[in-house]
């Protein structure tokens, strides 16, 4: 099953490499987040990596787009460097975004989160777009594949205690009733409010 | 089919991103290789990325291991940087190795190549190793999956003229009759001799 294959490879080929104490610095993702707070004098809402799983498979280049006016790019966490399968000093880095939100007394404030799309979904959408032979099969089964990806990733994370608390999956309907892309900032704020 | 899915994702999620004129520098992989030659005063055997596809799926951390005494790590090509699916300034870099080879007059010389394992195979082997439910299925079909990966990647590369000349796939039997891992340096030298 393609969706669960992507989920296993995303966990074993990426999340399992970047969350625990790995890389030349031997730091846990949580430590990189605390270092970020010290260096930039800001507070991250949670010591978690928010992984966006949009049902339509559409992943923009950056989270900041004209459809998401509430989000701005901040800088990245410190890089993790490790040699993997012949690639010397391969670099892994995670991005921080700041989201404008109204506080109770109406003053503007920013909420900082580490967030990104689930990369295999972007790649999968590219594959489907270019690939004559399989396109019709994938287009028909797209919804099942994304759902399987989400459910399997959720299950695999639960089996790994050292990773599950540091990763927040957001599986969401990314298009509104007119077919427009929703503001990703609002999607993240909703989840933040729920977690608090 | 899992093998061809991995091949499509490796091409669309990586090779198509790193070979053409991409990244903040807008350089082609061939230009990065020529820059490397100027900077380090060495000559690369070919302006190609050698991708190793070992039949056993075993991919060591670096190409340099005690089983491959003829290979040494050199430095990396210049990095390519691009924002992908929410990860700002994601870094892609390729490694150069130098291989000891005997010249005609018996003098020692080095041959420089950009080479790495096909990372999805390493990830796939990790997934199979950890995963109770599917392991027996994968272990049985491992040979078909690697073969499908190779054949599909070969086909997809042929369909993209701007990439196929800059990528050399080496599908090889990586264990000798005693079950020991062969010297990867010799595998690469054999292919270099064939291409000349
Ligand atoms: N956000 C994010 N940042 C990363 O650094 C990263 N690295 C991997 N992944 C995702 O994890 C999974 C497992 O990766 P694997 O390395 O086996 O396959 C990778 C790998 O074979 C190759 N590849 C991608 N980036 C690199 C790279 N920098 N160096 C070498 N190979 C790479 O192309 C495949 C597809 O990559 P993505 O489609 O970006 O998603 C991958 C994949 O879903 C990443 N996701």
TrEMBL record, chains A, B:
Gene Ontology CC terms: autophagosome; endoplasmic reticulum membrane
Record's keyword terms, sorted: Membrane, Transmembrane, Transmembrane helix
Domain STING ligand-binding: start-end pairs: 1-194
Entry GO MF terms: 2',3'-cyclic GMP-AMP binding; cyclic-di-GMP binding
Any GO BP annotation: innate immune response
Protein's name according to its UniProt entry: Stimulator of interferon genes protein-like Protein
Naturally occurring in which organism (per UniProt): Tribolium castaneum (Red flour beetle)
């Amino acid at each position: 099953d393609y969706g669960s294959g992507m989920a296993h490879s995303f966990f074993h080929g990426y999340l399992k490499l970047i969350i625990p104490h790995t890389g030349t610095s031997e730091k846990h993702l949580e430590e990189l987040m605390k270092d970020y707070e010290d260096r930039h004098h800001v507070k991250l809402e949670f010591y978690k990596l928010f992984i966006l799983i949009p049902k339509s498979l559409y992943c923009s280049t950056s989270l900041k787009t004209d459809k998401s006016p509430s989000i701005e790019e901040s800088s990245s966490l410190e890089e993790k460097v490790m040699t993997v399968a012949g690639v010397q000093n391969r670099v892994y880095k995670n991005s921080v975004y700041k989201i404008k939100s109204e506080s109770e007394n109406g003053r503007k404030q920013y909420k900082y989160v580490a967030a990104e799309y689930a990369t295999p979904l972007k790649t999968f959408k590219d594959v489907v777009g270019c690939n004559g032979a399989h396109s019709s099969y994938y287009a028909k089964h797209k919804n099942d594949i994304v759902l399987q990806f989400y459910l399997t990733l959720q299950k695999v994370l639960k089996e790994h205690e050292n990773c599950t608390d540091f990763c927040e999956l957001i599986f969401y309907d990314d298009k509104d009733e007119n077919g427009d892309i929703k503001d990703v900032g609002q999607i993240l704020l909703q989840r933040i409010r729920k977690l608090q």
